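quick q for whoever's on today - can somebody do inverse folding on this one?? i tried earlier but teh output was garbage lol. tokens:
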């Protein structure tokens, strides 16, 4: 008979209880969403507050076409996960929040997560008394070279705009030209311009003519290269607005003008065309600002089908996945070109900049020339000098938020709450960017 007290007795199994997290240090007391549009662009910033007076972090969660959905995701789903937690546990918070919806990723949830993630990096920097780039390994350059956006109604106007930037010290200029009679994305003053413009308040009327665009762009760069010389670096963004074979034809036609990069040749659903593009044209390719899941970049990087990653950092979930993606790129000779137009808040631009300073495989940083009201709302906004973006040495991301000023600039009225109306071809078909 077995002795019930014998050492060999099998004990009933008990559920595994993980050890409690470290309990010292500050705790998250509140998570708030601040919506503001100082220069007309809808910005979303998350503020993570702690139980230490005056200790908080800020993160960019700007998805300017769906800001209210992001705010709801933060308030209803991320805030309850965060309350009472240590702000130190960035990686664990990111992993837990990412899978807490089971169906994960996507621009709404990732932007919400980025707001929290970047705020925790900001907080960690403040707790350490260091700028975030120090936490990422320290800087490997003094500042981040920028590219600016030149545009115009014809090649001469684009040339004038580019010269204006070159005289200000910029050495990298993205050039876009209007297609006469056609809606043209990315051209200042055009009906669906990226710049803040009263036309944003109307539905787009003009049709988009991809064939005319593909004809006109090589002529633009022929003019620019001969007028501006060889020193300036020229860039162009297709904005995914032509059929894949036309994008390949355009890339081949642009070869003689030695672009720094050609951006977004295909819609994000058309990645299968990249091997063909690579075989056909020796033009550096930048891609990815419409991807949301960080894993979407992996096949293009590992097969060396692109040269620069374009990433709206908040759209993939913030600094935590972006620094990993940058490190992955380093092994394949792919460089970074974080998305940095006006629909990234100054907090997000600061996050871009800290990555720019710390990543050896930095490529180029897209510039946004912040307006006066944006600087008023966001003291500590990164500064532009000599064609480069400079960080301040303030601990954390280095950008503050004047909430009283932010409240003076609510979201503007818009028939679609800031959503984009469709771009259509001449027959009425919706053009997918
Ligand atoms: Mg783009």
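ok took a stab at it. sequence:
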């Amino acid at each position: 008979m077995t002795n019930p007290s014998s050492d060999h007795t099998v004990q009933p199994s008990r559920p595994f209880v993980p050890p409690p997290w470290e309990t010292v240090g500050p705790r998250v007391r509140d998570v708030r969403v601040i919506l503001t549009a100082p220069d007309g662009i809808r910005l979303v910033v998350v503020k993570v507050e702690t139980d230490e007076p005056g200790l908080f972090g800020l993160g960019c969660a700007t998805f300017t076409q769906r800001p209210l959905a992001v705010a709801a995701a933060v308030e209803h789903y991320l805030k309850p996960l965060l309350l009472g937690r240590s702000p130190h546990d960035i990686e664990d918070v990111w992993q837990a929040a990412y899978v807490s919806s089971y169906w994960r990723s996507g621009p709404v949830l990732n932007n919400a997560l980025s707001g929290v993630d970047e705020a925790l990096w900001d907080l960690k920097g403040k707790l350490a008394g260091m700028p975030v780039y120090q936490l990422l390994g320290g800087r490997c350059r003094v500042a981040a070279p920028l590219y600016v956006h030149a545009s115009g109604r014809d090649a001469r106007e684009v040339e004038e705009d580019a010269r204006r930037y070159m005289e200000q010290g910029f050495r990298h200029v993205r050039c876009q030209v209007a297609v006469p009679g056609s809606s043209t994305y990315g051209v200042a003053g055009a009906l669906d311009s990226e710049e803040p413009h009263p036309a944003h308040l109307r539905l787009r009327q003009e049709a988009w003519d991809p064939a005319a665009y593909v004809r006109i762009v090589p002529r633009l760069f022929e003019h620019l290269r001969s007028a501006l010389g060889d020193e300036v670096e020229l860039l162009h963004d297709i904005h995914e607005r032509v059929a894949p074979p036309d994008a390949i034809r355009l890339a081949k036609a642009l070869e003689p003008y030695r672009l720094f990069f050609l951006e977004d040749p295909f819609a994000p659903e058309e990645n299968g065309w990249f091997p063909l593009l690579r075989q056909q044209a020796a033009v550096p390719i930048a891609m990815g600002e419409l991807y949301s899941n960080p894993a979407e970049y992996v096949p293009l990087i590992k097969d060396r089908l692109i040269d620069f990653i374009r990433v709206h950092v908040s759209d993939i979930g913030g600094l935590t996945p972006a620094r990993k993606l940058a490190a992955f790129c380093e092994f394949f000779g792919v460089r970074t070109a974080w998305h940095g137009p006006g629909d990234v808040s100054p907090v997000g631009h600061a996050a871009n900049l800290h990555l720019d300073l710390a990543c050896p495989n930095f490529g180029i940083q897209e510039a946004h020339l912040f307006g006066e009201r944006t600087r008023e709302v966001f003291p500590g906004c990164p500064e532009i000098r000599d064609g480069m973006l400079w960080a301040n040495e303030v601990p954390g991301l280095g950008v503050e938020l004047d909430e009283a000023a932010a409240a003076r600039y609510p979201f503007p009225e818009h028939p679609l709450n800031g959503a984009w109306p469709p771009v259509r071809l001449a027959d009425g078909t919706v053009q997918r960017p």
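fwiw Residues 191-204 have pLDDT under 50 and may be disordered. also Residues 237, 239, 263-264, 289 surround magnesium ion (CB under 6 Å). so keep that in mind when u check it
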